[in-house]
Amino acid sequence: MEILENKMITDIIKDSLSKSMSYDEYRNLVTALVEQQSTTGNDKSETFINYTVLNDRRMKRWDKTVKLSDSAIESIKSFSENVTWLVLTESWCGDAAHILPVINKVAEQNANIDFRVVLRDDNEHLMNAFLTNGGRAIPKLIMIDNETLEVINTFGPRPTIATEMVDIYKTLHGQLTPEFKEDLQRWYNKDKGQSTIADLLSILA
Questions:
Q1: Can you give the pLDDT of all 205 residues of the chain as single tens digits?
Q2: Which of 5, 64, 84, 141 has the highest Cβ tally under 10 A?
């Protein structure tokens, strides 16, 4: 049964990889969607279109400003396995706008890491195989061995510290309020991607 399940996941990964795009292609797609007043995903409402506009700005800023320490760069460069980081996302996702530029910055440091992007709503089987607490939360990074297509590790949808913040708030209040979501955006801006870098280093260790 487990062998059959693993084969199914491998086939799903193969299919999604065949539809994947580079980070640059994804960034160009998001920018084009902003010009078209549209968004990725099944929900094309004005709210989600506005999120895409905001996230395009966020990603432009992070693409320019994310910084890696010398020790982080050294750790990344020392990674010798040949892997793909396949990331599920959508242009309207606020967490993804803060995280994907950081993933890209880390992946750029090592030719052994191939960073590929797929859209969640176009890859339902893949998303359903990598749920978070039963939910289709994004961004979700799947770390894949390029030779065997075995899943080595995963990351997401948020860095560990942000996940703890969300879990505590949900426990106390039942759901995430608009005020909390604004607080979370401020946390991302203050953190400057460093918590995401730390988590990514841990899956490379």
A1: 455 577 699 999 999 999 999 999 999 999 999 999 999 999 999 999 999 999 999 999 999 999 999 999 999 999 999 999 999 999 999 999 999 999 999 999 999 999 999 999 999 999 999 999 999 999 999 999 999 999 999 999 999 999 999 999 999 999 999 999 999 999 999 999 999 999 999 999 9
A2: 141
Q: Which two tokens stand for residue 68?
A: 């890696």
How many structural domains compose the chain?
A: 1
CATH number of the domain encompassing residue 10: 3.40.30.10
Q: At what angle do helices 160-173 and 178-191 cross, to 10 degrees?
A: 160
**Residue range of the domain that includes 197:** 2-204
